[in-house]
Amino acid sequence: MVAKAPNFDLALTHLRNRQNMAAYNQFITIAESIKNTDFIKAALSYVLAAECKIRQNKDSSDEITEAGKLYFSFAKKGNNYSVKNAYLCAAKCFLRAKKYDNAKAAFEKSKTLKRNTVLEDLRPVIIIDDSKSIILKIESYLEKLGYKNTHSFSTGKSAIDGCKKLLKANPIILLDMGLPDINGNVVANKILSEKPDAQIIVITADEKSTKRVTDTISVGVLAFIQKPFTIKELKDALNIAESENSLSKK
Description:
By secondary structure, this protein is of the alpha/beta class. It has two domains: 8-111, Alpha Horseshoe (Serine Threonine Protein Phosphatase 5, Tetratricopeptide repeat); 125-248, Rossmann fold (3-Layer(aba) Sandwich).
C-alpha cells in the first residue's frame, strides 16, 4: 500500500481536531520536504509542529529554532522592507526557543529596513463595522497612513456582497465581530471561501479569548486589534499585511 503524500490542509484538520501526533507528523514531513525550496511555508510548518508539541506539554524548542533559521535565511535573500517581517518572525521564534543572541541579531536586522511609502502603491482597504463613528475614525487613521482607497460596509450581508466585487483588487479587510445581522466569523469564512489568501484584520471590542474571536482567528485571519485602539496599533497591523503580501509575491 502506497503511503499518502503529506497534505497541509489535512495537517491543519488534524490540528483543529486536536489529533496532535498525526498533525505533528504531517507538519514535520512537509517542513523537511520543502525547507530548501519554500522557506516561509517550511517555517510555518515547523511553527505548527511546535504547537502540536506544546499542546502535549512537550518541549518545542527544536522546531521553533528551525522555523527561526528558515525565516532568517529567507530574509537574508532580500534587502528591502518586504523582508522586515521575516526578520521579526525569526526574532520571535528564537526568543521562544531562548536563543537570545540569535533573537537580538534578527531584531537588529529588521530595524535597518525602512519602508519607502513614496514608491509603494498602498492597497485598498475594506472596513466592515456597524458603528459610523468607528468607520470615520478608521478612515481618518487610514488617510494619515496614506491609504486613500477605502470602502465601508455596516452589515455582514452587504460586506459579503461588496467584497465579492472588490477581492480582485487584493484589499486589506478590517472586520468587526459584532455586526447586526451576521457574526464576523461567518463573514470571514465567506470571504476566505472566495479568496483563501484574503488578508483580514479583526478589530473588535471582544476579548481575544472569546469564542467568536477564536473561531475567526482559527479560519486564518491575519491580525487582531482590540477596541479602543490607536493609530499605531492599526499601522502595525497594516504593516504586517503589506509585508506578508510582499513576501507572497517572491
